[in-house]
Specification:
Blueprint lengths: L8 H12 L5 E5 L1 H4 L5 H7 L5 E6 L4 H11 L4 E4 L5 H6 L10 H16 L3 H18 L11 H12 L12
Parallel strand pairs: 1-2, 2-3
């Protein structure tokens, strides 16, 4: 939601109930710093009544909150951490996968990293994890001095272009 709209939980549930009328599976997104609303385990409990809600991209900034969501809801909800740094802890707790941003830049490393984690080969995952960390380090580096807080995502999109994948603009230029 835009920063000037603060929906109540009942409005969020109604929003997803309205979308569910289409009859397709829904992956809900919890990205509190972007959506200005936190889909915590209690709100997700309310969303459980909507059969079409089947998955969540959980980009909460709180690992304990993500763990609570997994503990309470992983029996019916496919959980995908949206932050690679939380993936090992969440995969260990039964996450269905990850929604990795770096997949677009260092895809092979993300796949191998995930496969090692999913198989419990924690030590084997480290080399690919370091590549992912380094890629984030470049994107978030002050060397690039992005003009806006989201400037590092433009760097990621440019990296994709170098790899031959045109991801377009982050948003229309001003």
């Amino acid at each position: 939601a835009p920063c000037f709209i603060a929906p109540r939980n009942v409005e969020i549930v109604q929003y997803y109930a309205d979308i569910a009328k289409v009859g397709l599976p829904i992956m809900i997104y919890s990205i509190p710093e972007k959506g200005h609303h936190n889909l915590d385990a209690d709100l997700i409990e309310d969303l459980k009544a909507i059969d079409e809600v089947v998955a969540i991209k959980d980009s909460a900034l709180s690992l304990p909150q993500m763990i609570e969501t997994a503990n309470r809801h992983s029996d019916w909800l496919a959980i995908f951490p949206g932050r690679e740094g939380y993936a090992p802890d969440m995969i260990e707790r039964g996450a269905a996968g990850i929604t990795a941003m770096m997949m677009n830049v260092v895809g092979r490393h993300v796949v191998t990293w995930y496969e090692h984690l999913a198989a419990g080969r924690w030590v084997d995952s480290r080399a690919d994890g370091r590549v992912i960390d380094a890629a984030y380090g470049i994107c978030l580096s002050k060397t690039f001095k992005p003009s806006r807080p989201t400037g590092h995502w433009r760097i990621m999109k440019e990296s994709m272009k170098i790899r031959g994948v045109d991801a377009g603009f982050m948003r229309r230029p001003f």
